[in-house]
Design brief:
The structure is a single chain. With 170 residues, the protein is mainly β. It is built from two helices and nine strands; from the N terminus they run H-E-E-E-E-E-H-E-E-E-E. The protein has a five-stranded antiparallel beta sheet. Strands 2-8-9-3 form a four-stranded antiparallel beta sheet, with no helix packed on it. The radius of gyration is 29 Å and the shape is elongated.
């Protein structure tokens, strides 16, 4: 036959000469088992839940720059005159709110729930707000509002079960 070398033409191949240079990984057919992760409740029970860096406990009505609130269900001023409320739907009941304010706005960490809504419409309806965003971060979400330079309206963030009310004055 054309192209076939006669037997023994090139000599006998040494034993193992045609083995692969790298052995193939051992594989097993079938589905892989589902991955397991510790729940947030399990981590908190073990005392290994991630702590919010720089979040010191303070009164819920703290709105002074640099003041923070931890573990409550409200953040911001006790009274918001001429306030407009925007409600954000959350994936689960909110466990707690932890916030920090500064001269340019505020940031609130919403523990135990992810946002199902966008925060952009908050800025679109209030000329004092330059930017509003809410980002989902695994087991919590982070709401950030930045005010237009020179404007600092009164605000309040309140958790009601699986919803978050953001009230900003005009």
């Amino acid at each position: 036959a054309y192209g076939a070398a006669p037997a023994g033409a090139y000599g006998a191949a040494p034993a193992g000469a045609y083995e692969r240079a790298m052995p193939e990984a051992a594989t097993q057919a079938g589905p892989m088992p589902a991955p397991t992760y510790p729940s947030l409740a399990d981590l908190r029970a073990q005392g290994a839940a991630p702590a919010a860096a720089g979040m010191a406990a303070a009164a819920p009505e703290a709105t002074e720059p640099g003041r923070a609130v931890g573990g409550g269900m409200t953040f911001g001023a006790a009274d918001v005159p001429s306030g407009r409320t925007t409600t954000l739907a959350m994936s689960a009941p909110v466990e707690s709110l932890e916030g920090v304010s500064d001269a340019n706005g505020f940031t609130v960490t919403v523990r135990g729930a992810l946002s199902l809504d966008r925060a952009g419409p908050i800025a679109a309806t209030n000329p004092s707000i330059e930017r509003a965003s809410i980002l989902n971060r695994g087991d919590h979400s982070v709401l950030t509002l930045r005010f237009v330079a020179g404007r600092t309206p009164a605000y309040r963030v309140v958790a009601h079960g699986a919803s978050l009310d953001v009230i900003v004055g005009r």
